[in-house]
């Protein structure tokens, strides 16, 4: 699943390690999600969105109509 986590994480000036700690997962999990090698659970998707201050659809659909 394509996502924009890396983009939002860098905008928030968070390392993968810091984001992982805030979401109670490993840095490797964040890395795998950012590289489209792992799809997060629904709960983790909501945790990531809340931590990054965006809506889930902005993280995973880009918040654009053409992403549908």
Description:
With 68 residues, the protein is an all-alpha fold. The chain has one domain (5-57): 434 Repressor (Amino-terminal Domain). Helix content is 56%, strand content 0%. It contains five helices and no strands. The chain has helices at residues 5-11, 16-22, 27-34, 42-52, 56-60. Helix 2 (16-22) crosses helix 3. The longest helix has 11 residues, at 42-52. It is globular, with a radius of gyration of 11 Å. The protein starts with a helix and ends in an 8-residue tail after the last helix. The model has no long low-confidence stretch (mean pLDDT 91).
Q: How much of the polypeptide forms β-strand, as a percent range?
A: under 5%
Q: Please, how many domains?
A: 1
- Looking at the structure, what is the overall shape? globular
Under CATH at level 1, the class stands as: Mainly Alpha
If classified by CATH, what would the architecture be?
A: Orthogonal Bundle
Please report the distance between the alpha carbons of the first and last residues.
12 Å
Based on secondary structure, the structural category is: mainly alpha
Mind telling me the CATH superfamily name?
A: lambda repressor-like DNA-binding domains
Helix content: 55-70%
Low-confidence parts, pLDDT < 50 over ≥5 residues?
A: none
* Estimated radius of gyration: 11 Å
- Number-wise, the strands total 0
Mean residue pLDDT = 91
